[in-house]
TrEMBL record, chain A:
The protein's name: Nucleoside ABC transporter ATP-binding protein
GO CC list: plasma membrane
Molecular-function GO terms, alphabetical: ATP binding; ATP hydrolysis activity
Keywords recorded for this protein, A-Z: ATP-binding, Cell membrane, Membrane, Nucleotide-binding, Repeat, Sugar transport, Translocase, Transport
Keyword Translocase assigned: yes
Automatic annotation (TrEMBL), chain B:
Sequence intervals crossing the membrane: 6-26, 38-58, 64-87, 94-112, 146-168, 207-225, 277-296
A GO cellular component entry from the record: plasma membrane
Localization: Cell membrane
Protein name per the record: Nucleoside ABC transporter membrane protein
Keyword terms: Cell membrane, Membrane, Transmembrane, Transmembrane helix
Transmembrane found in the keyword field: yes
InterPro entries with a match to the protein in the record: ABC_transp_permease
Length: 509, 314
């Protein structure tokens, strides 16, 4: 049935190339008034590029954007805003030194005009907060806000400018399940008031929950369009990947001895990041321990402890049954900790080093890669080539700089580097973030295989689905505290969300 | 005891205001640049260029106020070059800043030699004279201490108020502060980060040049090589000392000027006979470093300071 509601936004033939990569290839679609359109696709499918063109951050190589029948001049965010297009970016565009009101006011008045009209603005913001269920203190410094609150400010920014089209780029990536529900309630209210929404996501259940219509992007092209009511998660997943999707279904774990044990361990906080607060945890052989939580709640501190970057300031810390006296990255390596760090660019690799150099970053000081202080590049290269072959790293060769690799291939090299040492304990911190489905299932399968080989795996992820699918036991972190372990299948996402919001701990403690 | 006598003399306070004036202009200029996200190390050279341009314009026949305008425009021209190189081209702000300092300084010296090839001592101009404010200037003690300055000193204080008002009470100031914290916040609201940053660097550089011009057009009446003598670098420290806030930076400038005025006078006391005068010269700098350490611990540095912004980069 054709949609008879008026078209508010129309894209035609949008094409954008970055060098040899065609990020968007002749994409076109229309958005109707009062509609929630989901833009679904894997990382790298071209969703964010498309929205940045629409909003004027990028200029398209070809194609047109029309808002309410008027062509939008390319490359001007100001024109998009004036036409009533508001965008909530994946990375918030807020100035932390300013208040909520000030952030909303930036650019809303002629620059040379005196006065900010704060009182008037505050009243309008209060009214919008109330109407759309976006609770946030208008005089709070943005620096002090939680991620969920920042997102509400971003939405308020768009509403304050009378946006008729709201674009949300991966809005739920940083939210707890409860915050996500609140966001969806806000979106419903917005649609009821005649706004139109483009909801960008790669999370299928959210797309199913919130949208009226889905457009699937694959490799920069529209791969399909379907009314949400006429489809389901599996069919969407197939459209997204272009093949049938297999969810990891690990066999039952056979947990063994505790290889690393924390008993009431605390670590000092670092800047705004909380340290561990009296955390007790056992990482057992042959078991994947999943760590859920909203990012920035102490997962980093635990990862740093396991990988040797920080030492405990209190509590008992045992590795392989022996109490640890001196703990450092080198000690962790010698104790058989394999590390897949959270940020593969910043800490996992050195961008301008070759694959060979990156492959031996942790072992370069040991034979066969070096003897008596001299590097043995032949051995290092052989090692790198073995990883490239065994772990299917697609690259120009072992002597190419690692910065040329895609995220997935870089991650495979890091995975290979960690697993080739046959680690007893594996720290996998966000191991599949930003990977496409092919690389993702590969990495997950390797982790499961390592578990079956008797390693203790600590999996840290913000993706609750991933935690639920892979973990044999799940802990939740909130503000540096750790929940008890919940065995596989004993907690629903909503129940874990309560812990993620920091609510279960009071009863437990 | 000598210190108490000095602090109670009206001439000491008059000197503090006089010494502080060029620092206030240039500190406000640097503060504007840094609040928008650009460290302007061209300050030292721009002050030299401003000192020369203002003085030369008056020597060549312009009035004092038009001469000041020439200084301002000279500063803005160097600011435009700095802004062009650091903002759209995104070059290292340290390298560009030091380059501008060298360029502006040597341009001023070169222009001086070109226009006055023969002289051994620089010619004098008729500088700004103290303004007599009816009532205030006649007050006992305070009249001499606070109200015996030239118009430029009062202008310096007015500049602080103007900068504070613009930063905190206008849409322009809001956009400028946001540009120094998170430029993408400015871009996402439809404004041009490039325009705001270049504008801020030009305006700030203009103020720096006025600070330099104060030296030749109010404090002294001619132009000497080395007369700026590191004041620009002091202003960079004063911005940090002031935690990027105009009011606090003003306090810092007055404090530094106070130490400076004090040490000059201490040299004349019996104490000065025993201690080498270089020790006194050192005092303001040593105390400034101490104050900097104590004051700037918890300062909120503009988060995007020294970070070039490229549209579309993630």
């Amino acid at each position: 049935m054709p949609d008879l509601r008026p078209v508010v936004l129309k894209l035609e033939g949008i094409t954008k190339r970055f060098g040899t990569l065609t990020a968007n290839d002749a994409i076109g679609f229309a958005l109707h008034k009062g509609e929630v359109l989901a833009l679904l696709g894997e990382n790298g499918a071209g969703k964010t590029t498309l929205m940045n063109i629409l909003f004027g951050h990028y200029t398209a190589d070809a194609g047109t954007v029309e808002v309410m029948g008027q062509a939008l001049p390319p490359g001007q965010p100001g024109a998009a805003l004036a036409a009533g297009v508001g965008m909530v970016h994946q990375h918030f565009t807020l100035a932390g030194n300013l208040t909520v009101t000030e952030n909303i006011l930036i650019g809303t008045r002629p620059l040379w005009r005196g006065g900010l009209g704060r009182a008037e603005a505050r009243a309008r913001i209060a009214a919008l907060s109330r109407d759309f269920g976006l609770a946030v203190h208008p005089e709070a410094k943005v620096r002090t806000l939680s991620v969920g609150e920042c997102q509400r400010v971003e939405i308020l920014k768009a509403l304050y400018r009378d946006a008729r089209v709201l674009i949300l780029d991966e809005p739920t990536a940083v939210l707890t399940p409860q915050e996500t529900d609140a966001l969806f309630a806000t979106l419903k209210k917005a649609v009821a008031q005649g706004l139109s929404i483009i909801f960008i996501s790669h999370k299928l259940h959210e797309v199913m929950a919130v949208s009226d219509r889905v457009i699937v992007l694959r490799h920069g092209r529209v791969a399909g369009e379907v009314a949400t009511a006429d489809t389901d998660r599996h069919r969407l997943a197939e459209m997204m990947v272009g093949a049938e999707v297999r969810l990891p279904a690990p066999s039952l774990a056979r947990p063994g001895a505790a290889l690393m044990e924390l008993d009431a361990v605390s670590t000092p906080p670092e800047g705004t990041r909380p340290g561990l607060k009296s955390v007790s945890l056992a990482l057992r052989a042959g078991q994947i321990t999943g760590l859920a939580g909203v990012s920035g709640n102490g997962q980093g501190a635990l990862a740093d402890l396991v990988s040797g970057l920080v030492a405990p300031s209190a509590g008992r810390f045992e590795v392989a049954g022996a109490r640890v006296e001196r703990w450092s990255p080198r000690a962790a390596l010698q104790a058989g900790v394999g590390r897949i760090p959270e940020d593969r660019h910043a800490t996992g690799s050195i961008a301008d080093f070759t694959l060979t150099e990156n492959a031996v970053l942790e072992d370069y000081a040991r034979p066969p890669y070096s003897r008596r202080g001299w590097m043995n590049w032949r051995a290092a290269r052989a090692h790198a080539e073995k990883i490239i072959k065994d772990y299917d790293v697609r690259c120009p060769g072992s002597e190419a700089r690692i910065r040329l690799l895609s995220g997935g291939n870089m991650q495979k090299l890091i995975l290979g580097r960690a697993l080739e040492t046959a680690p007893r304990i594996i720290l996998a911190n966000q191991p599949v973030r930003g990977l496409d489905i092919g690389a993702l299932t590969y990495v997950q399968d390797r982790l499961i295989a390592a578990r079956d080989g008797g390693a203790a795996v600590l999996l840290i992820s913000e993706d609750l689905d991933e935690i639920l699918a892979l973990s044999d036991v799940i802990h939740v972190m909130s503000e540096g505290r750790l929940s008890p372990g919940f065995p596989r299948g004993t907690k629903t996402p909503a129940e874990l969300g309560v812990w993620m919001a920091g609510q279960g701990f009071d009863h437990a403690a | 005891m000598e210190i108490l006598d000095i602090l109670l003399s009206a001439s000491f306070w008059a000197a503090v205001l006089r010494i502080a004036s060029p620092l206030i202009f240039a500190t406000m200029g640097e503060l504007i640049c840094e609040r928008a996200g650009v460290l302007n190390l061209g300050i030292e050279g721009i002050m030299v260029a401003g000192a020369f341009a203002g003085w030369m314009a008056v020597y060549a026949g312009l009035g004092l106020w038009p001469g000041l305008l020439v200084a301002l425009l000279t500063g803005m021209a160097f600011g435009a070059l700095h802004g062009l190189l650091t903002v759209p081209f995104g070059l290292s702000q340290h390298v560009v800043g030091l380059g501008i300092t060298m360029l502006a300084t040597s341009s001023a010296y070169y222009a001086y030699r070109l226009s006055l090839p023969e002289v051994t001592s620089p010619p004098r101009i008729e500088p700004f004279q103290p303004v007599h404010i009816p009532g205030l200037s006649d007050l006992p003690f305070f009249g001499e201490a606070l109200f015996s300055q030239t118009a430029l000193t009062y202008l310096a204080f007015a500049t602080v108020i103007a900068v504070a008002l613009i930063l905190y009470r206008t849409p322009l100031g809001l956009a400028l502060r946001a540009a120094g914290e998170n430029p993408s916040a400015v871009e996402a609201q439809g404004l041009s980060v490039t325009a705001i940053r270049i504008g801020a660097v030009m305006a700030g550089s203009g103020l720096m040049a006025m600070g330099g011009a104060f030296l030749t057009m109010s404090a002294f009446s001619s132009f000497f090589f080395e007369m700026v003598n590191g004041r620009g670098w002091i202003c960079i420290a004063l911005v940090v000392f002031g935690a990027w806030r105009p009011g606090k930076a003003l306090v810092g400038a007055l404090l530094f000027a106070g130490f400076d005025a004090l040490q000059i006078r201490l040299q004349q006391t019996p104490l000065g006979a025993d201690i080498p005068y270089q020790v006194f010269l050192m005092v303001p700098y040593a105390l400034s470093i101490l104050a900097l350490v104590l004051m700037s611990r918890r300062a909120e540095v503009p988060a995007a300071l020294m970070t070039p912004y490229n549209r579309g980069d993630r």
